[in-house]
Design the sequence.
């Protein structure tokens, strides 16, 4: 199994931390993993993205030309990456900020109003973690506890921040249930 | 850990005492790591130099003083460092130089490239010298080979180049460090720190006596022969029954390995030789393989530089094909797999 | 009989290869006298330049190492940082320090590197055969300014001491000349103070020494001494250019 995911959005939305969280969680679960951020001139001007590859075997290339999953936190990212998603793959969009029609019929589109949910929680900067929770639930790539453990390790003893992020993650993870209900 | 951070941490654990560098993408995280983690250590120093030429000259100065010392850069910066590398080599001074290579020529791209193979393996600067060149292909190897680079530099009193690339430098992978940082920092016994208790010493190549300079070149040559004998290193992958052997290094080898696995599932007997030392180059191993294998494919992120070493090693004993992507383009494993499959059938191997 | 004059210990017994009337041999000797008097012979490392004094290591009996053209200050920086207890000096000409090595020099001074720079200014590239230096005077003829240095084509003589004095890391800078007994005595004092500045860990120190090059100036040694007084010092005035070392170092 080799699964590649691209996280993309505005700089400051925390898309690189989303990738790092996923990589960390996959590592804790004993998988092979590579994490590759965009860098240099590509990240000037406010957009950022990163690629996470997760596999049971050695990973040949950390680059994803046709990722299984794309998480688009803003409108330009949907435009840029929707054609790259592998046929049968999933495109997650932050529907609070994205107002673009996805034209492809061969991929699944999962709309999560991540920014809206985060704002309701009075923690607008946690939109990335809300989306992360939804991503974990839907992709089933790693477990939620592993993501939380990885987060705690990355944030060391910033307990307050960990609590905020955990709450946001859980809100995103439970989003589909509440939606269904 | 990020590749660039892994290099820095491995250097500190190898007893690196001084680091001098200049910002250039895609290796900035390494310079920053050294500023944070080496700069304030007891007995250590970090300087963000005014230029690449200054940085490598500082490396030369610290190496004169007997310290374990490192600098790092990326392709355009490496061109500027060549002056100092020649002085290090000529004056038989150890140092570790990391090239997180990008696509060239000129300013080029900041994405991964392998177009500095010639520069790294042919000496790069003026004069008749070589540097040992190590080519990691994973974050783990960035750490392991950086450590090895310090040991080889001291063993052979020679600059050692770690030829990485932007992809390895920027990516993150799990790794394990095999050494703890030493408490007492190493000082070489031939350090130039003042002639206390011994006659004064001169470190120089410049000499009006050309016979002495000729002898210096011969002595370097003899050392290089010894390095070729002792330090050539490579990895083989599924070569035992192979009809086609891919030769690739660094990130390209990693991608090729993925492609070979795909080819194997289709029943194609493909293997790989991955040089870990680009200089010395594993020519003897290639020649040995060519007793059985008659077709080789060189895969590089350039227009065919290691290709020449492969051709030199094989002569007319085998056919050599080439697949290269220059300028910072990273081929996918499936693209390489298609090249392998096409070649396999074209050459009548199936 | 009492010995009143002898060869300093730090000066090797090798006869100088310098031309008659050249300032290098005087400056070498002065430095060796200071190194002896301050007891620095076994803790000093010197970095000679590319230029006429490239073979300075044949004369100084201290540890010495060659450097690439212009990189003296950077090499000295690396050495000093790796071994702070070592006394490190560079010996550089005007081409080495003020042309190809300008950046290294300025930044070493700006970082306040605890190194001592002996900067020999003879207004010409001497070893390569008398080409224009950054310090060549206006209208001065050299092999690459055969019609005289023209300010509109070749710019002006570069005043490194004054430039470096603007930098906060530079602690002691003095310009002297070795074209008279008094100038020679003054030069020795300046060299001594420059080393003291380094020993006291205060910052960057440099002595710029105007030095005759009769061969490339196409003059007799006597004429060259007079030319320094009449022409060179008008552009490069002698004296302390900067001294923030404080009284403790005054001689």
Sequence:
């Amino acid at each position: 199994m080799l699964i590649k995911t691209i996280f993309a959005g505005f700089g400051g939305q925390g898309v690189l931390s989303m990738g790092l969280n996923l990589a960390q969680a996959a590592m804790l679960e004993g998988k092979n993993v590579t994490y590759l951020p965009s860098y240099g001139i590509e990240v000037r001007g406010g957009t950022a993205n990163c690629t996470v590859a997760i596999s049971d075997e050695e990973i040949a290339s950390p680059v994803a030309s046709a990722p299984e999953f794309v998480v688009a936190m803003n409108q330009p990212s949907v435009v840029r990456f929707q054609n790259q998603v592998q046929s049968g793959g999933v495109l997650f969009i932050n529907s609070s900020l994205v107002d673009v029609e996805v034209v492809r019929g061969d991929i699944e589109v999962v709309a999560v109003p991540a920014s809206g949910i985060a704002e309701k929680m009075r923690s607008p900067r946690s939109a990335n973690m809300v989306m992360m929770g939804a991503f974990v639930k839907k992709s089933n790539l790693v477990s939620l506890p592993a993501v939380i453990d990885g987060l705690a390790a990355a944030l060391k003893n910033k307990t307050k921040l960990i609590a905020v992020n955990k709450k946001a993650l859980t809100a995103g993870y439970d989003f589909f249930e509440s939606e269904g209900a | 850990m990020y590749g660039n951070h892994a290099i820095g941490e491995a250097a500190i654990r190898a007893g690196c005492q001084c680091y001098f560098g200049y910002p250039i993408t895609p290796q900035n995280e390494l310079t920053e790591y050294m500023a944070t983690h080496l700069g304030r250590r007891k007995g250590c120093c970090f300087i963000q130099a005014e230029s690449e030429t200054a940085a490598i000259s500082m490396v030369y100065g610290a190496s004169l003083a007997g310290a374990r010392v490192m600098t790092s850069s990326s392709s355009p910066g490496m061109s500027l460092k060549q002056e100092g590398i020649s002085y290090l080599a000529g004056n038989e001074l150890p140092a570790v130089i990391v090239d997180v290579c990008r696509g060239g020529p000129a300013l080029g791209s900041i994405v991964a490239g392998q177009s500095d193979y010639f520069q790294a393996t042919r000496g790069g600067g003026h004069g008749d010298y070589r540097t040992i060149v190590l080519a990691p292909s994973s974050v783990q190897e960035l750490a392991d080979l950086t450590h090895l680079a310090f040991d080889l530099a001291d063993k052979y009193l020679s600059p050692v180049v770690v030829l990485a690339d932007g992809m390895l430098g920027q990516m993150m992978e799990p790794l394990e460090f095999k050494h703890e940082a030493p408490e007492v920092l190493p000082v070489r016994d031939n350090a130039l720190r003042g002639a206390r208790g011994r006659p004064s010493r001169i470190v120089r190549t410049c000499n009006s006596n050309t016979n002495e300079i000729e002898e210096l070149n011969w002595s370097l040559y003899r050392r290089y022969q010894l390095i070729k004998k002792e330090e050539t290193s490579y990895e083989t992958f599924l070569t035992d029954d192979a009809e086609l052997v891919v030769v690739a290094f660094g990130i390209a080898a990693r991608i090729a390995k993925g492609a070979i696995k795909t080819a194997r599932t289709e029943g194609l007997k493909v293997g790989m030789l991955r040089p870990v030392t680009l200089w010395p180059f594993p020519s003897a191993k290639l020649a040995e393989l060519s007793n059985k294998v008659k077709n080789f494919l060189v895969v590089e992120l350039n227009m065919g530089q290691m290709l020449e070493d492969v051709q030199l090693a094989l002569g007319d004993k085998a056919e050599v094909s080439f697949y290269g992507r220059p300028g910072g383009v990273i081929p996918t494993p499936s693209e390489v797999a298609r090249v392998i499959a096409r070649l396999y059938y074209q050459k009548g191997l199936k | 009989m009492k010995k009143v004059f002898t060869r300093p210990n730090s000066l090797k017994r090798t006869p100088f290869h310098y031309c008659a009337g050249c300032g290098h041999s005087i400056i070498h000797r002065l430095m060796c006298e200071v190194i002896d008097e301050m007891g620095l012979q076994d803790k000093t490392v010197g970095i000679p330049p590319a230029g006429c004094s490239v073979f300075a290591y044949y004369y100084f009996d201290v540890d010495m190492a060659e450097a690439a053209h212009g990189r003296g200050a950077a090499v000295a920086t690396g050495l000093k940082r790796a071994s702070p207890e070592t006394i490190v000096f560079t010996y550089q000409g005007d081409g080495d320090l003020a042309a190809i090595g300008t950046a290294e020099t300025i930044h070493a001074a700006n970082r306040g590197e605890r190194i001592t720079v002996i900067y020999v200014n003879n207004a010409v590239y001497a070893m390569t055969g008398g080409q224009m230096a950054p310090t060549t005077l206006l209208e001065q003829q050299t092999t690459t300014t055969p019609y005289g240095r023209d300010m509109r084509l070749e710019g002006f003589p570069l005043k490194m001491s004054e430039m470096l004095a603007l930098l906060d890391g530079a602690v002691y800078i003095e310009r002297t000349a070795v074209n008279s007994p008094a100038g020679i005595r003054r030069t020795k004092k300046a060299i001594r103070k420059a080393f003291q500045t380094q020993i006291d860990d205060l910052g960057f120190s440099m002595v710029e020494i105007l030095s005759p090059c009769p061969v490339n100036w196409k003059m007799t040694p006597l004429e060259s001494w007079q030319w320094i007084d009449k022409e060179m010092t008008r552009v490069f005035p002698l004296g302390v250019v900067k001294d923030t070392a404080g009284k403790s170092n005054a001689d």
Observations:
- Chain B has a mean pLDDT of 96.
- Chain B has two domains: 3-231, 235-346.
- The domain at 3-231 of chain B is CATH 3.40.50.970 (Rossmann fold).
